[in-house]
Sequence to fold (260 residues):
Amino acid sequence: MERPSTAHIVRGILLLTAIMTAIGVALGILLPNHIMPRQMSADSHAAVMTVIVFSVAAAPVAALVYAVGLYSLLRWRHKGAEQPTIDGAPIRGNNAVTTTWLIVSTVLVIFVLGWGLTFLSSAATPHADPLEVNVIGQQWAWSFQYPGTGVESSKLVLPVNREVHFHVSSKDVTHGFWPQELGIQIDANALQSSSISTTPDKLGSFSVRCSQLCGLYHAYMQTKGEVLSQKNFAAWLQANGASASSASRVAVVAQGRAHS
Fold:
């Protein structure tokens, strides 16, 4: 059998790379919005966008690697009783390939770094009048306290369109506070408090799970959360033991933020 020329091999690999890149880009754009949780905050939207952008950026690199492997399997695999061909001369280096790979890798790393720093700087921007919520994890349940109201609940209830500042800790082992649809996650450690913030922007229910393997019933350490209107949130606080003044104060601050 006539040995294909180098140009023929390159064309075949590039064709496979193009096809696989198109498939990878399509999947990277279409799948995340279907397989990731509902987006209920700017943070969850940023998480989905990050998955999409990184998947699209990685698609050509992954496609090239898979194309080389697939082409090799299709073209040079051993076929039954045929005598295997003699290996070609080993290639110790190729300056063009090495340089191209170095440049592409550098560009991708700089892009990823820039993307991450951009979101970190935006997340670090402080907001006025956040709602403070204490989150306590323990084997195997969550509890949520609302300072200044006297309310403690096993369900995380939040007002819409108001920044929430979570103070997260644990009574025993390390847990992971993960309100899925809000797009944030932080460890809950014993003897110390960690902080993270987000702003729910949609009404509805969400799930709170533990993201750290914390013991026998880790898989069952989950609870429900809900985002309410400012008025309904104040009513919920009052129904769960808050005074009318503290509940009204929360509602006034939230409404002021909503109209500002």
